[in-house]
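Late entry, written up from scratch paper. The run itself happened at the end of the previous shift, but nothing got recorded in the book at the time, so transcribing now.
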Amino acid sequence: MLDAAIGLLDAEGVEALTMRRLASELGVSPMAPYRYVGSRDELLMVLVDSLAARLVYPPRPQDPKGAMLVLWSTIYDSLAEHPWVPEVLARRRLMAPSVLDAIEEIHAALRDAGLPIDAAVRAYRLMWNFTLGALLVRAGASSEAPSRQQALRGAPDPERYPMLAAAAAAWTAAHDRDTYREDLGALIDALLPAA
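Output as recorded:
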């Protein structure tokens, strides 16, 4: 059932997943999925947790920044494979219990880098919001619709928007590039105490 639901979500997005549609895909009665989960939201949580449980984290460097880059990049890459997951996480404020080990390790790396616990929590939240935002932008960029952002930033009126006009070439160059790792590194550098 989980693989069928993931396949449906990957192919058609969150709005396509209903319990009735899933039952139809499985060739079972409309009430059959309810024997396993109580609601669509519960099914989404089980699916997110199932995907999180499949994550394989590569070995981490000893330095805190390097460890965080590896952990966050692994999370990012995994979530990017299923564009519906960031939307579900953002809209439903869900969290997969299977990622608690990674969250613990990220907090430990922040503490090892010299942040007190309250600053480590804030830094984690900033990195999570950055990661989720990057994933949502990536999902939107993969749509076939023309980019209104690129059109507006690519040719602003230099009289009215001189800074945007000066930045237009940089915006255009960055438009189709995934700069997550580079940007994450800059964010981590800004969050950690100076060495």
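The chain has a mean pLDDT of 88.
(Scratch paper discarded after transcription.)
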